[in-house]
Design a protein that fits this description.
single chain, about 180 residues, 4 strands, about 20% strand
Length: about 180
């Protein structure tokens, strides 16, 4: 949808009027809203800064999106800084805004994918570091294996602690049964 804003300033009263038009049919604009502002309030808001001016210009009936409000505020500032100009027309096309938004989103996604690639590359570098760590672990494991060869030299019979207790009990039972 296309929209137009006509910002006018009465040179005598300094009153500012903003008219909002919307394209309801191809190249046919209709007045949607009109707001009039006291010139002294607008002068004060202009002197306090753009954010204050935008806050002053927005009303329950006229509340443009941030991008539009920013350009309208620039136009009002221009009207007050140039004494000879009485009106400024600003045109907006939602299609253009959507294209800009889509391009910005694509750029953000591309930046995100580059960041993801960097993280993945960092992970690969970390894995290489882990591989070198695991090589050190293998050296430690092989040292443990050397110690385990010492374990194999232990007599098998000495490890049968529980078996020897059972066999002692069995022997005691056998003695009891023979008596």
């Amino acid at each position: 949808m296309k929209q137009k804003y006509l910002v006018t300033k009465d040179p005598k009263t300094q009153q500012v009027t903003i008219q909002e038009f919307a394209e309801l049919d191809k190249d046919v604009f209709s007045l949607v809203c009109e707001e009039a502002y006291d010139g002294n309030k607008i002068k004060t808001a202009v002197s306090e800064g753009k954010d204050e001016l935008i806050e002053t210009l927005r009303t329950p009936n006229l509340y443009p999106v941030a991008e539009y409000a920013d350009k309208i505020a620039d136009s009002v500032i221009e009207l007050f800084n140039q004494g000879d100009q009485e009106s400024i027309e600003i045109a907006f096309d939602d299609i253009d805004a959507l294209k800009k938004e889509k391009a910005a989103r694509s750029a953000a996604e591309e930046d995100e994918s580059v960041a993801l690639d960097e993280l993945l590359n960092d992970d690969i570098d970390d894995e290489d570091a882990e591989d070198s760590d695991s090589a050190e672990d293998k050296k430690v494991d092989s040292a443990d294996d050397e110690d385990s060869s010492d374990v194999s030299e232990i007599e098998e019979g000495s490890l049968d602690l529980f078996d020897s207790e059972e066999s002692d009990e069995d022997d005691d039972e056998d003695k009891d049964s023979t008596k």
